[in-house]
Each structure stands twice: as C-alpha cells, then as structure tokens.
Amino acid sequence: MGMFGALVLFLKPMTIARALAVWGCFVLSLLSKEQGMLTPLLLLASAPLAPRGDDPPRRRDALAWLGVMVMVTVAVAIPPWPSLTE
C-alpha cells in the first residue's frame, strides 16, 4: 500500500508537500514489510516516467529533499534489523 502510494505521488509534478507525502508513504511501507526497502529502487526506476516540464527550482529542491529524507531513513532503518547485525 505504501509503495503504491509513493509511486502514484512520485509520478505527479513534485512539490515540497508531495515530497513529504512520498517520504511518509516510504516510511509506511518500510514499517509494514521488509520489501518496503525496495521503494527507493522503484522510485528511481520510475523516474523517467515522471513529468519534467520546465524543471523549476522548486521541483529540484523538492527532489533533493526527498532524496535526503529517503537516504537518512534508510541509514537509520538498517541497523536495528536483527538479521543484518547477527
């Protein structure tokens, strides 16, 4: 559910609010199942399908914030998993 929501939101013109919503869907999918860790890969693979337009600075800022939020979340989420630390 979270992966699908993130993908649907990602394929619309990106704003800061939409980037926060995509990140929230990523966190939801990450907390529901381990396969949620594949959400960033799915978003990266679908990036060529996202609308480009004239690429205003706000869109670039929103994508940059989304990238930072996802990377920090992945970095924080990996260590607590017992199967990876044992």
Explain the layout of strands and helices.
Elements: H1 2-10, H2 16-32, H3 39-46, H4 57-77, H5 82-85
Give structural attributes.
globular; 86 residues; mainly alpha
Folded structure, characterized:
The protein has 86 residues and is mainly alpha-helical. The N and C termini lie far apart (30 Å). It is built from 5 helices and no strands. It has one domain. The protein is globular.
Shape, per Cα inertia axes: globular
* Approximate strand percentage: under 5%
Q: Structural class of the helices, strands and pairings?
A: mainly alpha
Q: Please summarize the sheet with the most strands.
A: none
Q: Share of helix among residues?
A: 55-70%
What is the number of helical segments per DSSP (H or I, 4+ residues)?
A: 5
Radius of gyration over all CA atoms, rounded: 13 Å
Identify low-pLDDT runs.
none
- Provide the domain count: 1
List the helices and strands in order.
Answer: HHHHH
> How far do the termini sit from each other?
30 Å
The total count of strands amounts to 0
Average pLDDT rating: 86
